[in-house]
Each structure stands twice: as C-alpha cells, then as structure tokens.
Design goal:
This protein is of the alpha/beta class. The protein folds into two domains: 129 residues, Enolase-like, N-terminal domain (Enolase-like, domain 1, 2-Layer Sandwich), CATH 3.30.390; 220 residues, Enolase-like C-terminal domain (TIM Barrel, Alpha-Beta Barrel), CATH 3.20.20.120. It contains twelve helices and 18 strands. The strands form five sheets. The chain has an eight-stranded parallel sheet. The radius of gyration is 20 Å and the shape is globular. The relative contact order is 0.18. It binds magnesium ion. Magnesium ion binds next to loops.
Amino acid sequence: MKITSLTAWQVDLPLREGRYAWSNGNFVEVFDATVIAIATDAGLTGHGECCPLGAAYLPAYPAGVRAGLALLAPALIGLDPTNLGEINRRMDATLKGHAYAKAPIDIACWDILGQASGLPLSTLLGGRAQEEIVLYRAISQESPAQMAEKVAGYRAEGYRRFQLKVGGDADEDIARIHACRAVLDAGETLVADANTGWTRAEAARVVAAVGALDVHIEQPCASYEACVSIRRRTARPFVLDEVITDAASLLRALADDAMDIINLKISKVGGLSKARLIRDLCIEAAIPMTIEDTWGGDIVTATIAHLAQSTPDEFCFSATDFNSYGTRTIAEGAPRRRNGRMVAPTLPGLGVRPLVETFGAPVLRVGG
Ligand code: MG
C-alpha cells in the first residue's frame, strides 16, 4: 500500500462556554483545528486532527500545524502508511522537532493500519484494558465562586474529576482551590493546574496553604527545575504536563522522582506511536496518566479514547472528551460522554467518519 495524497482542512471549533481561560491571562474563544486525510492506492483513507491550545500555551500554534504539514507531505507520498516506524523516521528526518505537526500524520496512518487490519486502534495499541474511560472536566479560570459553581454543575452531569485552571494571583488561587474542594465529596478528584503560571515563591505559598486539602498540584512553574523544587516542598500528589514532551524528558523526570502523574497529550509528543511508548514506560514506572491532547474535536476525542481504552484503569488517571466542550460536530461515530465516562469506537481504525463535506475548501493538497 502506498500513500497517494494528503489533504488538510482548517476547521473552527467554537466553545460551548464561550471562552476558555488559563494562567497568565491567556484565553481562547474559537479553537483553530486542522483535519487531514491521507489517501492510499488501496482505496483506504485515514484521518487525523491537531488543535493547539492557541499560540501561547506550548511551542505550537495552529498555522504551524499547516506549515509543518506542507513541508512533510511531499516526503510521505509513496510510503507505506502501515509502516509506522518508517513514516515517523521519514518525518523526523524531514523536519526537526515540531512534534505537533507530525501528530495528525501519524494518527491518520494508524487509522489506515486499523482499517487495513479490520481492527479498532484500541486493539492495535495493546487491547481493551478497561470498560469505560473516566473523564475529567477542565474548569476555566474565573472567580472562586464562579469556578465552584461550574464544578457543581459539571458534577451534576456525572463528572467526578476536575481540573482547575489556576496559575493566577496566588491568594485568589488558594481561594479557588478551597471553594472548589468544598463542593466535592471524598473520592472525587481535584487537580489545581497552574499551567506554569506561578513563580517559585507563589507556588510555595499555594502548596503550603492547601497542604491539608485533598488536591493534586499540576505544573506549578515554567521550568522543570522549579517544578521539582516545589515537588520537594509538598506531600500532595504532583503532576507534570508542559515539561514532559518526549520519552527523554520522561526518563529524566522518572530518574529524579519528579512527579506522581503525567499529563500525556498525544499531539505534544508527536502522535500515537510516541504516545504509546510514553504510556508503556509510565505503566512500567507505576505513573498514572491523564490521556488527552492540547485541544480538539471529535477526531482528537476518538484518538484519545483508543489510547485510554487500551490503558489499565489504575494507570488512566483521567482522559478528556474535548468534543463536549465545543458546539460543532466534525465527525460521526466519535465517543459521546455518558455519566462522566466515554468508550472508544469499535469500528476498524479510529472508527469515525469526518464530515469533510462541511469543512469548505481544503487549505492544502499534496499528491493526486
Ligand atoms: Mg495541564
């Protein structure tokens, strides 16, 4: 089988809540996603989606996905999409870094492999390891009272795990954490995610002030070294996200005992091939994961679901149903949240049918 063409569309994903805000005054109101289709001479077509969290969250931005795809696509025409190792080696030889631009290509090739073998990706990624995937809800940064109200509202919809967007003013963040913990029962999970927004001094104040609460602390500071420093000062479960970008950064953090949990974002590490490696290393090291992505719609949600479904529940700390945050359906067959949980599609490959007829004209087409 050979790749004959790559087509990409730009897709706007408006938010149900209108705005998503996190540390340092950052926010997004309409997400800018890229959906790709990789066609083959066997008549199979695979799809992938990448949606950075704006341009100020990671070294990734929406137009960068498209620029990377334009550079990578010509190098992939004629390759066998079911040879995931060769696909990834060719991408890495063509473009240094920019893992997020490679992710939708890797995912689309996995989709083709699944269709060619007649198996869902959850099977190819290790086999079903849990029945239902427990989801968390991200709570956009607002006042402590507004955030506590959102937690209570989403709890009524069935969520039991919540991730607060903090990383703002330290005193207000302390109030946010207390207010949201107060509306939860024992056994329900609260994560305070600073998204790199605190200085060491601010983080030190927050972890001291919430030391008696049942709360996880996520990525308090920008640098790895500053995060490790805060990790040493708190007994609370500690999550690393932005600084875990690949297997090498994970291995370093494991050697340093730098965290208890990681946040594994599939596009951040370059797609399912590399995410699977990191997932398996974490299982060996007894590190649970939140399995998710930077953002996305139905195709990203299906991709997350396959990796999460093939991860034992004790290692799947949570996952994200991004398609319930937006107002737009971009694929049929994607997982739909029920009672705070989702299940991966069972059809071959990703098991979704992107609604490409609703995407408008492609922004990129390479090959015939
Ligand atoms: Mg995070």
